[in-house]
């Protein structure tokens, strides 16, 4: 099992930037991919960005593309999400997720393919 702890959320004005971190512990050698999802009040959870652990292949949602950057540090078992040009509609709880069963090999954007989740960190963007 993999444990995930997110950090870095907060309040920022529109147009600003925030950086999130997610540190993995436990059976990190089994990690195949990691991703960031978000859930706004009253909305379903949605994929924001994902990265494969060995090859570093990156995927973004349309809303994140061009503004968010996902990266990883394998030595630290940590994934990051740098968010620029933030908009009020980016306000959500952001969750880190890890796949240690290779389920995301066929669809990295599907939340059900991840077997470990962090507790979430709140990101609030004021207008």
Description:
- The strands form 2 sheets. Strands 2, 4, 5, 6, 9, 10 and 11 form a 7-stranded mixed sheet that branches. A 4-stranded antiparallel sheet has the order 1-3-8-7, with no helix packed on it.
- Strand 4 and strand 5 form a beta hairpin.
- It is globular, with a radius of gyration of 13 Å.
- Helices cover 0% and strands 50% of the residues.
- The protein contains no helices and 11 strands.
- By secondary structure, the chain is mostly beta strands.
Q: What is this structure, in a nutshell?
A:
The chain has 127 residues and is an all-beta fold. 0% of the residues lie in helices and 50% in strands. It is globular and about 40 Å long.
């Amino acid at each position: 099992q993999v444990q995930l702890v997110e950090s870095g959320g907060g309040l920022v004005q529109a147009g600003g930037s925030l950086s999130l971190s997610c540190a993995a512990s436990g059976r990190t050698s089994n990690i195949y991919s990691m991703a960031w999802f978000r859930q706004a009040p009253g909305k379903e959870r949605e994929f924001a960005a994902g990265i494969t652990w060995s090859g570093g292949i990156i995927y973004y949602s349309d809303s994140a593309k061009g503004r968010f950057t996902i990266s990883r540090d394998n030595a630290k078992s940590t994934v990051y999400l740098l968010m620029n040009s933030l908009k009020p509609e980016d306000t959500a709880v952001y969750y880190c997720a890890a796949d240690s069963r290779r389920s995301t090999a066929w669809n990295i954007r599907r939340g059900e393919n991840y077997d470990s989740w962090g507790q979430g960190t709140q990101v609030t963007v004021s207008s």
